[in-house]
Amino acid sequence: MRAANEVFIGGKWVPATSERQIEVRSPSTGQVIAQVPDADTGDIQAAVTAARDAFDHGPWPGLPPAERAAIMAEFLAQLEARSDELARTITLENGTPTSLVKPGQVDNGLDVLRFYTEAAATLAVETPRAGRYSPVVVRQEPVGAVAAIVPWNVPFFLAAMKFAPALAAGCTVVLKAAPETPLHANIVAAAADAAGLPPGVLNVLAAGPSGSEQLVTHPGIDKIAFTGSTAVGRRIASLAGDQLKRVTLELGGKSAAIVLDDIDLQAAMARLMTVSLFLSGQFCTAQSRVLVSARRYDEAVERFAAITTKLRVGDPTDPATFLGPLISQRQRDKVLGYIETGRREGATLVAGGGVPAGLETGWYVEPTVFRDVTPSMRIAQEEIFGPVVAFIPYEDTDDAVAIANGTPFGLHGTVWTDDIQRGLAVARRIRSGTFGVNGLSLDPAAPFGGMKQSGLGRELGPEGLSSYLEPKTITVPAGTQLSGLPGLPGRPETSGPVTEVGEEGR
Questions:
Q1: What is the mean pLDDT of the chain?
Q2: Where residue 234 sits, what CATH number does that domain have?
């Protein structure tokens, strides 16, 4: 049984050097449910050193891909055996309703690890090519030691989106959990330990902003994978830029759902409710702006508001609950502040708008619907990260596309129509990294990420794996026969153009 003051570093539980503790509070009661070490300089140094040593001197990066895949398969099996424990823990940590936590958080994360375990087994480390001047070998080498920094809203799923491709590529990882949700990460560490991952391949700790910044700037880290706010993403990009570190940043969003006139509104509004208010709106792809033509606007608002008033808000451990609490008092106050801003700016409150009666304990907010929202209002431009949905009218499809594209964000969006081809035509016009026709999903086999201020790079799919690999080109003399390529004659005098560049020409 490990002690409460331990962190997982170098393949074992070790006493934290930090004397600071993070109090983990239940968002449904506000009460402290656990304490974990708040990693300090010593813990960060130890974790990075372990990851660095495992990459530079350990077996993991050099293992044949199939052998890495076999160990990852055991890691997956260990996590599957702990899936119920993961689900219960996440519900306690961040208030995800028990009816939604398994399919929406745990199962999705397991499927990401499953996808990259399969990808690892077939990873082509070296590929011969017939170059223009001579044969070449292109190697895919792991980028190095990775800092994986995850938020509190969908913690296990987002962690898997980072550690799974990193492990498949042969990288080593320091997984930094959010201070609000560190407990599930310790379950991940226990599964890695039981699966026999070599020491230092996966290190796990929790830290606040100070520890996170130390991790980002540590010279032993080669790449940072971060999901969180755009403001923090900018800071990480700036710090990483000083050292030319690789980054993948999945940041904020203000996604628009475009409802076309041909759709059955009753069915569409019911499905839109889920992709707007899941996790009480605390997810980056939330469809928080609903765009409806002026002709059907009143009907759509009425139907959506009617659905939200019937949603069960309350104890996340109750199977009947659909909306649990927000993560913290600070987040609840921020969301309530946005609701007041919407009122002041002239939007009309149709449903919700406050703390649910009888739920003053804990950090709850009613599902809230605004109408008469204009595209320039703050509630239509800024990421609220709460159960607040803004209905905006549009005149025609061109107007809808302009409104959807009219924010600094470009992470996700949806279109709702009975004509799939028409939906695809709209989808092609939206500046977002991901888009859905009649629904929202993140497929492990397809890239996910943002345009504009919604981030840099992609996670998931083969593209997510490639972001943890560095291509290396090895040239060989003309006429060399490589496996899979015929001997090539090349040029007799040179294997390619040569240019002498002085220091001033670099």
A1: 94
A2: 3.40.605.10
